[in-house]
Design brief:
The chain is α/β, with parallel strands linked by helices. It has 17 helices and 14 strands.
């Protein structure tokens, strides 16, 4: 790594330096040490870890990944840790209950998919990939006991999410309490200079800093990025909550999800996941405050920008055209997929069909429970008419719309 040219932070133009240190940054601990690190002239080791508990990443992850890419462009080294060991436990950060453990096959599959998406943002050629099994597979009982002896039960249970669960008598398993220690040890194993994470990872990251000091290493700095609110407008973007925008989603679906955002999230998304200048952001904020903003135009610009980032400018333009035709001009999309269904003849060419089983089997909804929820929210239409039960009257060729973005043409078997 010594032959890599590193651009000193003090040599970076002020506007770009301010973008790096202030834009999409919640907190840097301690900032003075971080700045000194970026001025020492050698590549810093930037730790980013992920548990392959699911195969996809979303825009919430992208907030931090964009900062890593910016630092790579200055010559610094990203170290991606695949948490194939801690995924067997599941990160309890922000969880109200324990997560199920995953099999090795599930973990390996998820990790591969996850990394393919990770490198849509971060430069693969300047990333070192490490798997936790490199060090944890060598752990003995003696090693584990020595590690746990460095911290007290009170320290671990003081963690906010553990404390909340204890206060409501929600179980906290012993293996879950190991998670922060194992994540902290990752920093020791790779000799991290900086660890990146969302603000919900504060306890874990700071524990890594503390453990490094105990183990005779220089303590890492910690770089926290803000939490991106999901499409529901209320909670952290999360696959488990279904309020996410996945980076591998088809362009039209990605564009449509951005267009579904509440108006009060527009500026946050521009700030956290685009390169829109601070001056333009200030103009947007002023326009919203004064009531002169045009949310539809801004959302279209945001949706096109985000879709272009992951699929290219042509895909961004096509997704915008699709949205205009289908959602604003109320036209059907081109190439609507077809689905074979069985039904009971009701006469006059009509058939009574239970939509839940074929829509789930065809992959158009995740589960019958999700479809039931969408029906209750009046988000399912049959030939343009909203339905209020899972059983519906259809004809051969009827178009069913599920949610905002999914269309399917039913064919009577």
């Amino acid at each position: 790594m010594s032959d890599i040219k590193v651009t000193l932070l003090r040599d970076v133009p002020p506007a770009k330096r301010d973008f790096l240190l202030r834009r999409a940054v919640a907190e840097i601990i301690p900032e003075s040490e971080f700045i000194a690190l970026l001025n020492r002239g050698t590549p810093a080791r930037l730790k980013e870890g992920f548990d392959p508990s699911s195969p996809d990443i979303h825009l919430g992850h992208v907030v931090g990944l964009r900062k890593l890419r910016q630092l790579q462009e200055l010559g610094h080294q990203v170290v991606l840790i695949v948490g194939n060991w801690t995924a067997r436990i599941g990160d309890p950060s922000g969880q109200s209950a324990t997560r199920p453990m995953l099999t090795e096959a599930q973990i390996e599959h998820n990790a591969k998919t996850y990394m393919d998406q990770f490198f849509k943002v971060v430069d693969k050629s300047r990333t070192e990939v490490r798997w936790q099994t490199e060090w944890f597979s060598k752990f003995t009982l003696d090693t584990v006991i020595r590690l746990t002896a460095k911290f007290t039960v009170a320290q671990i249970l003081a963690r906010e999410d553990f404390a909340k669960r204890m206060s409501t008598n929600t179980p906290v398993s012993l293996c879950e309490t190991m998670y922060p220690l194992l994540q902290a040890y990752d920093s020791v194993a790779i000799e991290a200079d900086v660890e990146f994470g969302g603000t919900d990872q504060k306890f874990n990251c700071l524990l890594g800093r503390e453990l490094q000091q105990m183990m005779g290493q220089r303590p890492q700095q910690v770089f926290f990025t803000p939490i991106l609110i999901g499409t529901d407008g209320k909670t952290k973007m999360s696959k488990s909550l279904g309020n996410y925008i996945g980076v591998a989603e088809p362009p039209e679906q990605m564009y449509g999800k951005v267009m579904s955002l509440a108006d009060d999230l527009i500026v946050d998304y521009f700030e956290l996941v685009t390169d829109t200048s601070d001056a333009e952001l200030a103009e947007m904020k002023h326009a919203f405050a004064s009531g002169t903003a045009n949310p539809m135009l801004l959302k279209k610009r945001l949706a096109r920008d985000i879709t272009t980032q992951f699929h290219g400018p042509d895909a961004g333009a096509q997704a915008e055209d699709h949205f205009t035709r289908v959602h604003q001009q109320r036209e059907l999309p081109q190439d609507v997929p077809e689905l074979s269904v069985q039904g009971t003849a009701e006469g006059d060419g009509l058939f009574r069909v239970d939509l839940s089983r074929p829509l789930v089997a065809g992959g158009f909804v995740k589960s019958a429970a999700e479809l039931k929820r969408l029906v209750a929210q009046h988000a399912v239409e049959v030939d343009g008419a909203k339905i209020d039960e899972l059983s519906a009257l259809v004809r051969d060729g009827t178009v069913v719309k599920v949610g905002r973005h999914t269309f399917v043409r039913v064919r009577i078997a």
